[in-house]
Each structure stands twice: as structure tokens, then as C-alpha cells.
Specification:
The chain has about 425 residues and is α/β, with parallel strands linked by helices. The protein has 12 helices and 15 strands. The structure holds (2S)-amino(hydroxy)ethanoic acid and manganese (II) ion (3 copies). It comes from Pseudotabrizicola algicola.
Length: about 425
């Protein structure tokens, strides 16, 4: 049994080839991916992943949220497993590596263990979490949230996409409702490899981010109600313009985030304008505010200020205003002992590394509630993500997966 300190490396060509094959499923229009959760493309990607896990000698379990768990047996079947994984679903204009690197990197770790005849004491479980992105069905990290007991399964099943389709019906339609009770599995630890989705590691010349914390998040869905009217014949002082309200609130969100610098972000990404006709003053706008900070006080202050600003703008313009929390998690502190394991692995492997706070949300942020959890990050070009031009180098992918291998080997023996 090779000591974790040995200079073991994964097969980076095989990893890169698997990433490339997965990217062919649910392709985007500009070189990235559009493999949104619970679509036929998502199902096709799941089947490909399952076939690879089978070929690697793993047994597959699926729970009632469609979370996939591929197990590689350990020498001690009673020992709680080490889980590692992320998500295969993508944004509508997503990249090839967001989430996918974490799932296929974990699979590559198992393939490497097989090549080297390594037997770990603890079982190893490679995981694909359903609907991490929250782009089609809010909130993000939905299925890992149900697994961690944050959301009920009924709440999750009743979530609807912009066309009104129900999560539970779509999961059944693609045939991925498993038989395991979600959340019943117990973990010794969870390791998640993910691209940074920000510019820090590349700018600092580091190959590895040792993720100590994660930002907290609020998604506030705001519905402004005014009155549809003719854009030509309606006098300006008689308009009840929900579109104008959305524009003013969007500006206020930006100002509020800027007023809490550093470590605060805010934007509006999703907007539905009704009736969305060129010559009709919008009588209704539904949009989601995304605000985040690693500092609890700033996060809570921004939520209060955005809520006040929305109601004030609505009152100025005579609009109805309803605000619904459609996503939230507090700032996350990952397991300090596992952070040390990841840092030590990067050091032994000779990879330049630094501690980092995750700007994006991840399944690990919820799993951290039920098991010791840590994340490993690799850089991405220009820090760009949630964009089809998302890019990483094979070397970065290999560095992150090497660290995942060494961390898993160490954690599987304690
Ligand atoms: O929104 C997020 O941070 C993640 O990409 N779902
Ligand atoms: Mn992701
Ligand atoms: Mn994402
Ligand atoms: Mn909270």
C-alpha cells in the first residue's frame, strides 16, 4: 500500500479525454455546454458517467433526488466511506469544467487506484449531485440541500422551472428517481474538487486553492406589479412601469454591494418581463437578486438594505412589490483538519497553493452540515465561468486531481 507521500499521479490524458467526451453531451452553441438539470442531455450524461463507473468496478446507488453514488469497496466494509464528487448539470451557457471536473476527477482517482492496485481501508464513493446550478429549478444546490436536511423532498419536488414544469415530474420523466432514501447515507468525509470560477489563483500563479471558507448567499425573487399600457399614447405621468422599477432596484443592488466592499457582491441575473412586448409598458417584472459575502454581518445587512430599497422604489412608482427568499445559505467554514490534509498534499506534490474563500456556492457548502467537508480548487483562465468560454489547462486539471488522490488516500486510512 503506497504511502500517501509517494509521488503518485493520476493519468491526466485519460482525465482530459473523459472531460472532452462528457462535454459532447448537451453541447452549447459556442464551445461550452448546455446540459441543464433533468433534461434529456442531463440523463445522457448520467448514463455515460454510470457506464464509466461500472467499467471501473464500482457499484451504483441512486437516491430519490437522483443523486448518484458510485462505490469502490474498501478493505473494511464497516468503515464510513470517503465521498468525493460535484455535479454534472450545467448553466444554459455553461462551461465544460464547472462541476464536471469534480465528478470526473473523482472517477479518475478511482481509475488510478485501480491501475496501481491500491486498496483503501474505507470505501470510496464518487458522487454526482442533482441540480447544483439552480438555473432551471431554484434554489441552487437543491439535491445536496435535501440530502443535508435543509430542504424537504416535497419542497424540492414542487419547484417549477420557467415553463412551469415540476422538478419531481421531470426527474421521473428522465428515469432517475432512485430507490435510496435521500440523506440516509453516512459519510466519514466529503472532498470536492472544483474550478475556482474566479481570477485569484491564476493571478497569483498558484495551481491549487485550499478552500477554507465559502461565501454565504441570498437569492431574493422580487415581483413588481404595475400596469400594461401603450408605450406611445400613455402620458409619462400616468405610467405604472414595473420595468423602470426593476432597473432602479438593479442599480441599488449594485450600489449596496459596492458600499460593503471588500468581500461583498451583488447582481441581478434572471429577469422575466411581462408581456415583454416592444410597445407595451411592462405591467409585471419578476427578477432575482443574488447577493453574497463571506461575512455574516455584511450578508444580513445587504439583505435588509436591498429589501428596504425595493419597497421604497416600488412606493415611488406606485408598484406592487413582493419579495420571496428562493435561495440562502450562511457563510461556510470547512473542516480545519481536512484543510490541513489538502494543504499537505499540495505541498508534498510540489504544487504552488494558497488558502482561498470560495466565491461560488457548491454542494460541499451543504454537505458540510452533515459531514467533515473540504474543497480543492484549480485555476480557470481569466477567472471566467458560467460562460461557454470557460477554460482550464490539462495541467491545472491534473494538479487538482493529484491533490484529490493524495487527500483521499490519506483520509481513507484514518
Ligand atoms: O450559484 C452558484 O454559486 C453555483 O454556481 N451554483
Ligand atoms: Mn459548480
Ligand atoms: Mn456553476
Ligand atoms: Mn442565515
Amino acid at each position: 500500500m503506497p504511502a500517501p507521500g509517494e509521488n503518485l499521479r493520476i493519468d491526466s490524458t485519460r482525465l482530459w479525454d473523459s472531460l472532452d467526451q462528457m462535454a459532447q453531451i448537451g453541447p452549447g452553441v459556442a464551445g461550452g455546454c448546455n446540459r441543464q438539470t433533468l433534461t434529456d442531455a442531463d440523463s445522457e450524461g448520467r448514463h455515460l458517467f454510470a457506464s464509466w463507473c461500472k467499467a471501473a468496478g464500482m457499484t451504483m446507488g441512486v437516491d430519490t433526488m437522483g443523486n448518484m453514488f458510485a462505490t469502490r469497496a474498501g478493505t473494511d466494509p464497516e468503515a464510513l466511506p470517503v465521498y468525493m464528487g460535484s455535479h454534472l448539470d450545467t448553466q444554459p451557457t455553461g462551461g465544460r469544467y464547472d462541476g464536471v471536473l469534480g465528478v470526473l476527477g473523482a472517477l479518475e482517482v478511482v481509475r488510478t487506484m485501480n491501475d496501481l492496485g491500491i486498496r483503501t481501508r474505507r470505501p470510496i464513493v464518487v458522487t454526482n449531485w442533482t441540480n447544483e446550478e439552480g438555473a432551471r429549478f431554484a434554489p441552487a444546490m437543491l439535491a445536496s440541500g435535501v440530502f443535508a436536511g435543509i430542504h424537504s423532498q416535497d419542497y424540492a419536488y414542487d419547484r417549477r422551472d420557467p415553463e412551469g414544469k415540476r422538478f419531481g415530474d421531470e426527474l421521473a420523466r428522465i428515469g432517475w428517481v432512485g430507490d435510496e432514501v435521500v440523506g440516509a447515507r453516512k459519510m466519514h468525509a466529503m472532498l470536492e474538487l472544483h474550478i475556482e470560477q474566479g481570477p485569484i489563483l491564476e493571478a497569483e500563479g498558484r495551481q491549487i486553492g485550499v478552500v477554507t471558507h465559502g461565501q454565504g448567499l441570498w437569492w431574493l425573487e422580487i415581483t413588481l406589479t404595475g400596469k400594461d399600457a401603450h408605450t406611445g399614447s400613455t402620458p409619462m405621468n400616468m405610467r405604472v412601469n414595473a420595468g423602470l422599477g426593476m432597473a432602479r432596484i438593479t442599480e441599488r443592488v449594485h450600489q449596496i454591494a459596492m458600499s460593503h466592499q471588500p468581500n461583498a457582491v451583488g447582481a441581478v441575473g434572471q429577469v422575466f418581463v411581462h408581456p415583454n412586448s416592444r410597445n407595451v409598458i411592462p405591467g409585471k417584472v419578476v427578477f432575482t437578486v443574488d447577493i453574497r459575502s463571506p461575512e455574516q454581518a455584511k450578508l444580513d445587512a445587504m439583505k435588509a438594505e436591498v429589501t428596504r430599497a425595493a419597497h421604497a422604489v416600488a412606493a415611488e412608482l406606485g408598484l406592487g412589490c413582493a419579495i420571496e427568499d428562493v435561495g440562502h445559505f450562511d457563510p461556510v467554514t470547512f473542516d480545519p483538519d481536512l484543510v490541513k490534509v489538502v494543504r499537505g498534499a499540495a505541498e508534498r506534490l510540489g504544487y504552488a497553493h494558497m488558502d482561498i474563500v470560495s466565491g461560488a456556492g457548491h454542494d460541499a457548502c451543504w454537505i458540510n452540515r452533515v459531514a467533515p467537508t473540504v474543497m480543492i480548487m484549480c485555476p480557470c483562465a481569466g477567472g471566467l465561468s458560467h460562460n461557454e468560454a470557460e477554460e482550464i489547462s490539462p495541467e491545472w486539471a491534473a494538479a487538482g486531481t493529484d491533490v484529490l488522490l493524495h487527500a483521499a488516500l490519506e483520509v481513507a486510512e484514518v
